[in-house]
Design a protein that fits this description.
This protein is mainly α and about 80 residues long. Helices cover about 70% and strands about 0% of the residues. The protein contains five helices and no strands. Helix 1 packs antiparallel against helix 2 and helix 1 runs antiparallel to helix 4.
Length: about 80
């Protein structure tokens, strides 16, 4: 089993799961960008239901993945700080 849900959906040729994963990623970036200056992304504009591997490349092989991991770590450290 893949850890990355976008990869998992492509591996299983699950168009619905791929679509939902990309929608969730779009929502994630939209929400984060409303609070932090991380730029905007049109993930769904690049979504390709005919080739799910394109979505894996979009997610992992582009700036989206880099920004996702960097921003997720930032948000996680900001919102989920352990109280002393």
């Amino acid at each position: 089993m893949k850890r990355n849900k976008v990869e998992e959906a492509a591996e299983q040729n699950n168009v619905f799961a791929s679509f939902m994963n990309m929608c969730n990623l779009q929502y994630f970036f939209t929400e984060i960008s409303s609070e932090y200056s991380i730029g905007t992304y049109n993930i769904m504009g690049e979504y390709n239901p005919d080739c799910l591997e394109d979505n894996v490349r979009l997610f992992k092989g582009s700036k989206i993945y880099v920004k996702y991991t960097r921003n997720f770590k930032f948000v996680k450290s900001t919102y989920f700080k352990k109280e002393p």
